[in-house]
Amino acid sequence: MNRTWMLVPLAVVGSAIALLATREPAPAEVRDSSGVKRLVVAAPFTTSAPFVHYWQAEQPQVNHGWLCVVEADAQLCAPKQTVEPVLIAGAGPVERVNHGTLGRTVVLVPCTQALAVDGACASGCKDEALQTWWWLAPTLPQVLPEQLDGAAIARARALLPEGAVRTLTSAELAAALKLGGEAIQVANETELHRVAAAWILEHAPEDREVAQGLLAPPVR
Amino acid sequence: MRTVLATLTLLWLAAADAAAQAQQVPSRPRAPRLIANLTRTELACRALTTAPWAERVNAFWEGSTLSAALDPAVLPFFEGRTVDVWVVDHKTDLQWAAAPQLVDVRGASSTRTFVAGGFAANVFELDAGTIFGGLDTRLGRPLDIVLDVDRNGLLSSGDWLDGDDTLEGASVLKTAALNGPYAVTEQLFSAGTWLGQDVYYPTNIAQLGPLPLVVVSHGNGHNYQWYDHIGFHLASWGCIVMSHTNNTMPGIATASTTTLTNTEYLLANQATLLGGVLNGKIDRTRIAWVGHSRGAEGVAYAHTRVRTGNFVPQQFSLSDIKLVSSIAPTDFLGPNSSAAIGVPYSLWTGGADADVNGCADCDLCQTFQLHERATAERYSISLHGAGHGAFHNGATSTVATGPCQLTRLETHSVMKAHLLPMVKVHLFGEEIARECLWRHWSGFRGFSLPTTSCLVVDLMYRPRAAQRLVIDDFQTNTATNLSSSGGAVVGTVTGLVEALMDDADTVFTDLATDPMNGMTLAGPGDTNRGIVFDAALGSYLAFDLPVSARDVRAWKRVSLRATQATRDPLTTQALAEYDFSVALVDGAGRRAQLRVSALSMGLSEPYQRTACGVGTGWANEFETVRVDLPALARANPDLDLADVRSVELVFDAASGRIGVDDLALEMDR
Question: Minimal Cα–Cα distance from A31 to chain B, Å?
Fold first, then answer.
């Protein structure tokens, strides 16, 4: 056996860890029936190269949004091969970078309104996009995120019972964004995932191997 | 003089080849006998202590007994005759012509005098397990068996040979569960998002020629670094294995995309990746895709996408995918997408799987549906007690429920012992390894495997269409008294139902309203049908052969697949393997009948798992039963194999509720 690891891009990981080290204690947890407990931390991101958001049928191109850590019902977060509930921020599915078996999932919330120009987010992508969170329960015929289009999500949203949507207060959202710090500006999705990997190591260490995979040495 | 003759023969063959090419004959004509009066016959067998005394097989595990048999009643030339018996390394016809000297792999030949008393008196041991399987990467060491009639130490005129120009007479197999001869190097890298790869290859790859590629696509919530047991094992036997990050969370289409893009990436960038160590070493015409869970459905869908033009690969073509293998697959996409059409396919199912659990209430959790849709050669292995997570080596739960659970280590041993022969058949062309994929473990269990009684393995196998003649697959002529081949079906079993093999409700509870209870082979949109019935002790079911099929002498096996019906009182009355007989009846009414247990076969009790309704016993688990046709015929030497009128299933050992499908006559190789 000869497992060869190449050098991990320490600069990326190091800056992400430095960012995490400056964080303040999280606000008190608020419980409701939504299965979403709180937004732990959030930071806006932009990527120089757009990437495909595979988590909805339209597969939009994305180059900005938010990197977040969401604390949620661990049972809803747990991986399954069969049908998993889909985590929605506002009106769109988020990309879950890890499952978060213990209840913390690192997610990319894409801004699907328009591509950012020169690093500036287009109109329609305000921080308020992070205000509501909910789980789309697997009751639709289209049970996989890649099968869900905007109309199906809207229908599901309309059928949700009261209390099934977690609405953050402005203070909660502001606290999470403050904790997230400055905007993340990286070249592409791969670099963004490397930042996300550092967040996984911090917030969901049970998914260490997912992070290790994202931090695997790049080809030379 | 002999050399001169051989040279002339070679020249003649070359001329014949040239002539054939000139006439655009697509295949080379069969070489003429290079040694005059040489007779080919089957000699190798597995000896049995009771009738039918031996089973014709060709594969023998290293360390196990190799026997041979010949019936002087059929070949009176041998009665009373003493010959030298040689077990030699296999040679082609040309090699024999060039070097006819006999060199016994046992160190010396043995002597055998054939006696009166028919077949039973002439089954004899050739080797007690001393023959070495070799140090190379072939699974089998191919051997020929020679009856040296003139006892001159040469393969010469008048001798008898078990072996063919291309196929050996017997083969001693190395232990498939153990690593092969090569040291293995593992390297991990990322080429970007969803292009993380964990690559395994023989450390001495620089000294080797191009090697086949096995791609591993993990499941949802799994990790591409969790397949060391596959990577190290197959690489040690001469494969390049690449396990990749798999985009399973959005769904099956995204997973299939990452299977495709990672395969493409590795092939396209081999010149520069990992310092170019793989450059020119990947045989892109020999690729296998192995997936787990959502990734297992993903590999089937990836094949569909290439087949239908939905994805156009730049680095390989459809025909380069030689095998698709699904470990505990989901079935989100259904018959039009998750189907391996025209490619050998293998399925793995864990009886204790608590995720893709196989319960009647969840169509997308029923693994067998993908197997049923496969149109080329197909294989299935079911492991009682194996959980969903037992198939990978991540330090997480085995995701199992039910009794008698297998550990991850035990599961991996079985995976190695089954996956290696699969790869050897389909990526290396080692036909002999196919026997590992259909012979019942009770009679052909490999070494270095778990000894726990909890290890119950059920196999299904269907060879390619050219190697089988279907008597009844229940797909056409749907009346219960007419087979799909057009013959009458009669019998004394009761309550026979021919229908889609899909449990009609959402539970495995035994209910009179659901005759197909426990069947999970078909889901929405599927069309595969079979039968189920109550078999009282002594009852039978007879399938008439169409006129064109009555001469069965060219066939090697009578094959069917069958299952005990879960939770039925006739199944639960005895927690045991179910035995029954197969019979042939000729035009004169003569019959030959043989219990399948005589060949170490039977139908397992369903896995004793609860839930999914009331009662104990999980989904119906079909097993393929392939009866050695000559062994069956020995039960009545007067049987006219040129005029067999019907094949009967005779339930003479116990009553039971039985499902049956795919009754056929088949070849072995």
Answer: 26
